[in-house]
Design goal:
The complex is a heterodimer. Chain A is of the alpha+beta class. In chain A, the strands form 6 sheets. A 6-stranded mixed beta barrel of chain A has the order 1-2-7-3-6-5. Chain A has a 6-stranded mixed β-sheet with strand order 11-12-15-25-16-24. A 5-stranded antiparallel β-sheet of chain A has the order 9-8-26-27-10. In chain A, a hairpin with a 2-residue loop joins strand 13 and strand 14. The radius of gyration of chain A is 23 Å and the shape is elongated. In chain A, about 50% of the residues are buried. Chain B is built from 1 helix and 1 strand; from the N terminus they run βα. Chain B is rod-shaped. Classes of the chains: A alpha+beta, B alpha+beta. At the A-B interface, strand 1, helix 3, strand 9 and strand 22 of A face strand 1 and helix 1 of B.
């Protein structure tokens, strides 16, 4: 649905690393799917998919081979960050483990134009989000499981095995939790916006020190269909700096720090409300809640070129980030000189949006923990947990598990807690009580 | 499934590999030219 498109495009299925098997139809046709809490539809490639290379590399559903198939035909398409799929709805029985969900609506994908799907090791996707974000308002598989009395409790939970030496990928448990796969008690937080498994999260800490950005709370989504942990550029840049991750030098960031750094600092010391600082130095206009790029005005001002507006947008964003960085350093009682140097250094660490950053594999053991405050508990991620190793031996590369993603207010800023977080922390999705719980994974 | 009333589905995992990362880069940076070349060569 276009109204949710801004969120749907966050998905990056290529990076999804955990998948399981389901059967569709009678007799069941086997498909490997991602169990994805960040979306709500079930789709698999269709035997009627002729013009997408990806379909030739994956299992395809053939309705004529199923005695329980029911025609539907309603068209459907889903746009993802790493591609799109389109096709039509069909109805059939879906086998998950040893239970059979009857008359489930799902999408037969007839087009998978993305290169990402060609190399993907999964055929399709089984969404475990809420019906509110389901394309075509299709009833999700999970809802049908509850409706048809196939699970004892309206709860499912994830355990992802992060031990790279072990073959077993993990386990999803429908109907409850597996006590073998967590330690201690879960910390629960209420779902704040039905659709995604979205909840409110507190501050993010680097090496035990607060970044301050989410001190007043940020939204977060528990998303099993995303590998990495995505968050606002402002904080990801601070993390990149702390872990020595490569970044992209931002000219606008440098310009703001060099030309306006001292002014920003003076205004912070004068205790001007931080959100108003960038408008005071005329890099943004203030809308009452946050800075809005002054560059937006250039769209209606025909005397100003569009490119000028884009640069000013970037300057506004850079200024807002610099304010957070400097405020954070001021709270740590740093000298003015150190604060300006720190902000300047951060400009070299700005991440590519939804891109990956590499770190030196030799330094991993020396890196700080990055922690997330959820429901009053601080959840630590050690460097071994947030750094992903690609390849073996001397050619191995270490990539940061953090990636930048900026969703503007009122929906954002949003953190996407993907597998990097759901690995160390066993996650419970409690549909009955509309809450999400996290405990140490075992 | 087991006798405790829970439905357990084992998950497989895939290690991050250079091929999928390459595809991600093609997708993000050169997605359209790549698709155009596929069309051009009737792939």
């Amino acid at each position: 649905d276009s109204k949710d498109a801004d969120i749907v495009i966050l998905k990056n299925y290529l990076d999804a690393q955990y998948y399981g098997e389901i059967g569709i139809g009678t007799p069941p046709q086997k498909f490997t799917v991602i169990f994805d809490t960040g979306s709500s539809n079930l789709w698999v490639p269709s035997s009627k998919c002729y013009f997408s290379i990806a379909c030739y590399f994956h299992a395809k559903y053939k309705s004529s081979d199923s005695s329980t198939y029911k025609e539907n035909g309603k068209p459907a398409s889903i746009q993802y960050g790493s591609g799109a799929i389109s096709g039509f709805f069909s109805n059939d029985n879906v086998q998950v483990g040893n239970i059979v969900v009857k008359n489930q609506e799902f999408i037969e994908a007839t087009r998978e134009p993305s290169v990402s799907f060609v190399v993907a090791q999964f055929d399709g996707l089984l969404g475990l989000g809420f019906q509110e974000i389901s394309v075509g308002n299709a009833v999700p598989v999970w809802y049908k499981m509850i409706e048809q009395g196939l699970v004892s409790e309206p709860v499912f939970s994830f355990w992802l095995n992060r031990n790279s030496d072990e073959e077993e990928g993990g386990e999803i448990v429908f109907g409850g939790v597996d006590p073998n796969h967590f330690k201690g008690k879960h910390t629960y937080v209420p779902v704040t916006r039905k659709g995604y498994w979205q909840f409110d999260m507190g501050d993010v800490l680097i090496g035990g020190k607060p970044t301050g950005y989410c001190a007043g709370s940020c939204a977060a989504i528990a998303d099993s269909g995303t590998s990495l942990l995505a968050g606002p550029t402002t904080v990801i840049t601070m993390i990149n700096h702390a872990i020595g991750a490569t970044g992209v030098v931002s000219r606008e960031c440098r310009t703001v720090v060099q030309q306006y750094g001292q002014s920003i600092l003076d205004l912070l010391l004068a205790e001007v409300q931080p959100k108003k600082i960038c408008s005071q130095i005329r890099l943004c206009t203030f809308d009452g809640t946050r800075g809005v790029s002054a560059g937006i005005e250039s769209v209606v001002d025909e005397n100003k070129g569009k490119s000028n507006g884009v640069i000013r947008d970037a300057m506004c964003s850079a200024c807002e980030m610099a304010v957070v960085w400097m405020q954070n350093q001021l709270m740590q009682n740093q000298t003015q000189n150190n604060i300006l140097n720190y902000a300047n250094e951060l400009c070299d660490r700005m991440p590519n949006p939804m891109g990956e950053s590499t770190v030196d594999c030799g330094t991993v053991s020396t890196l700080p923990n990055v922690s997330f405050t959820i429901g009053g508990r601080v959840f630590d991620l050690s460097p071994e947990e947030y750094i992903l190793k690609v390849g073996e031996g001397p050619s191995a590369e270490c990539i940061s598990g953090f990636t930048a993603l900026d969703i503007p207010p009122p929906r954002g800023p949003i953190w996407i807690l993907g597998d990097v977080f759901m690995g160390p922390y066993h996650t419970v999705f409690d549909y009955g009580n509309l809450r999400v719980g996290f405990a140490d994974a075992a | 499934a087991s006798n405790d009333g829970l439905l357990r589905i084992g998950l497989k995992k895939k290690k991050l590999d250079p091929n999928s990362r390459l595809a991600a880069r093609l997708e993000s940076k050169n997605g359209e030219p790549f698709r155009s070349s596929i069309r051009k060569y009737n792939l």
